[in-house]
């Protein structure tokens, strides 16, 4: 029996990481050290859309579902990856590679991130996708978010540049967010199993 391959598509949460302008600046700092207490604890200061994360209806829809109301299986499914201009879905999960996160450590300039347009968002609704991911800090305009989220299509943003290795392939995708009640999204560990 051959071993299945796992591709981790998450970006690390770390001090000095890129973050979306206007969001809380992430900080990771030691809170308790071995020298002080004999064990170690770190403090994380992050927003709900830090690093690789999910967007859910409450992010752009007043009264939309918050995270604890979405079943975990909504973030798991059979998927395929496409280059941005060649999206032709046949699975319940679609990942879109744009090349935006090639320079992750250097950050991105908000005027040149790559996103999807409203027409592609509507096409994803028509093909009954349940989850769409992208290697960019945003999937698109507020209206793109509303088109997807109002149709119960969850969004995963800030996938790593390793997504390039999956273009043209099918896999099982996982992007399970940490469970925080009452919120509009949360960081997630995202990976593909081939």
Task: Describe the structure using short key phrases.
3 helices; mainly beta; globular; Glucose Oxidase, domain 1
Which whole number gives the mean pLDDT? Answer: 96
The total count of helices amounts to 3
Widest beta sheet: strand line-up: 4-8-7-6-5-9-10
Sequence of secondary-structure elements: EEHEEEEHEHEEE
Kindly provide the radius of gyration, computed on alpha-carbon positions and rounded to a whole number of angstroms: 17 Å
Q: Tell me the overall shape.
A: globular
Number of structural units classed as domains: 1
**Could you say what the CATH topology is called?**
Glucose Oxidase, domain 1
Ends distance: 14 Å
The CATH class, by name, is Alpha Beta
Main structural class: mainly beta
The tally of strands reads 10
Low-confidence stretches: none
The profile of the biggest β sheet is:
7 strands, mixed, barrel
Please give the share of residues in helix: 10-25%
Strand residues, percent: 25-35%
Using the 3D structure, state the CATH architecture.
3-Layer(bba) Sandwich
CATH superfamily: Putative cyclase
Produce a short descriptive summary.
This protein is mainly β and 194 residues long.
List the helices and strands and how they pair.
Blueprint: E1 6-8, E2 27-32, H1 34-37, E3 41-45, E4 53-55, E5 76-83, E6 93-97, H2 118-126, E7 131-134, H3 142-149, E8 154-157, E9 170-177, E10 185-193
Parallel strand pairs: 5-6, 6-7, 7-8
Antiparallel strand pairs: 1-10, 2-3, 4-8, 4-10, 5-9, 9-10
Helix pairs in contact: 2-3
């Amino acid at each position: 029996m051959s071993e299945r391959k796992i591709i981790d598509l998450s970006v690390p949460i770390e001090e000095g990481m890129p973050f979306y302008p206007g969001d809380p600046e992430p900080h990771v700092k030691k809170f308790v050290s071995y020298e002080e207490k004999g064990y170690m604890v770190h403090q994380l200061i992050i927003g709900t859309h830090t690093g690789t994360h999910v967007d859910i209806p409450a992010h752009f829809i007043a009264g939309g579902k918050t995270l604890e109301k979405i079943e975990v299986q909504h973030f798991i499914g059979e998927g395929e990856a496409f280059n941005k201009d060649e999206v032709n879905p046949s699975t319940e999960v679609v990942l879109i590679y744009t090349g935006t996160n090639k320079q992750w450590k250097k950050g991105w300039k908000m005027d040149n991130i790559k996103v999807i347009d409203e027409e592609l968002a509507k096409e994803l609704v028509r093909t009954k996708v349940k989850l769409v991911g992208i290697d960019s800090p945003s999937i698109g305009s507020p209206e793109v978010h509303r088109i997807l989220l109002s149709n119960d299509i969850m969004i995963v943003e800030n996938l790593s540049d390793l997504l390039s290795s999956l273009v043209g392939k099918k896999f099982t995708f996982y992007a399970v967010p940490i469970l925080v009640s009452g919120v509009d999204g949360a960081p997630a560990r995202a990976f593909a199993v081939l």
